[in-house]
Amino acid sequence: MSGTRALTEYGPLVLFFVSNMAFGIMPATGVLVVATVLAVAWAMLRERRVPWLPVFGAVLVSIFGGLTLFFDDTFFLKIKPTVASLLSAIVLGIGLLFGRSLLKLALGSMLELDDRGWRNLTLYWMGVFVVLAIANEIAWRSLSTDGWVTFKAFGLTGIAIVASIGAAPLMRRVRGDS
Fold first, then answer.
1. What's the sign of the alpha-carbon dihedral 92, 35, 142, 160?
2. pLDDT score, position 89
3. Averaged pLDDT, 87-113
4. What is the dihedral of CA 70, 74, 75, 77, to 10 degrees?
5. Which long-range contacts (CB under 8 A, 24 or more apart) does 127-132 make?
6. CA atoms within 13 A on the CB side of 47
7. Four-CA torsion 173, 131, 79, 85, nearest 10 degrees
8. Are 55 and 88 in contact (CB under 8 A)?
């Protein structure tokens, strides 16, 4: 991952974490929404294309962050990772039901897999998204708000990174590499 892409994807999350520790959850929510929208806009200008996955994330952050601020209720922000993860798993599953790997559409230019490989990778990521949703549900229901923010910033990100690393052997095996 390039430094620019990492900054675009993780910069808003780091700002959210730091802002929460310094100012509390409501100001941090505003920072998260603004930083996410700006990061995606910057990515669009830099790449001269629409990065659909980050745009999807920015829309969800804006909706759930906006609801959090409007109702002065952290519930909306806390369920956003659950909703996003379950929506991702459902959309991938619907794609498979219609015989299409939506991961192939999103990542086909970066990965070279046969149809079985794309199916296996899609099923793998569907499982990861369900795990992320369950982990978030446990975290927001059992931790303080500050604890949940820390879990969101580092726990969910850590799970996603470990899952990405875990997918690598699956991709090599399907391509026929050693």
1. positive
2. 97
3. 88
4. 80
5. 127/89, 128/159, 128/160, 128/163, 129/85, 129/86, 129/88, 129/89, 129/92, 130/85, 130/86, 130/89, 131/159, 131/163, 132/81, 132/85, 132/156, 132/159, 132/160
6. 15
7. 20
8. no
Burial state string for 46-81 with b = 16 or more CB within 10 A and e = fewer than 16 = eeeeebeebeebbebbbebbebbbeeeebebbbbbb
Contact 165, 128 (CB under 8 A): no
Beta carbons of 106 and 53 less than 8 angstroms apart: yes
User: In angstroms, rounded to a whole number, what is the distance separating the alpha carbons of residues 65 and 58?
Assistant: 10
Q: Give tens-digit pLDDT for 109-137.
A: 777 888 888 999 999 999 999 999 999 99
Taking the C-alpha atoms of residue 47 and residue 84, their distance in angstroms, rounded to an integer, is: 24
| Residue 158 CA from chain centroid, whole number | 11
d(CA 43, CA 9): 10
**Residue 91: what are its φ and ψ, rounded to 5°?**
-60, -45
Q: Count Cβ atoms within 10 A of the Cβ of residue 142 and give its class: 0-12 exposed, 13-18 middle, 19 or more buried.
A: exposed
**Per-residue model confidence as pLDDT tens digits over 146-164:** 999 999 999 999 999 999 9
Residue 49, pLDDT score = 80
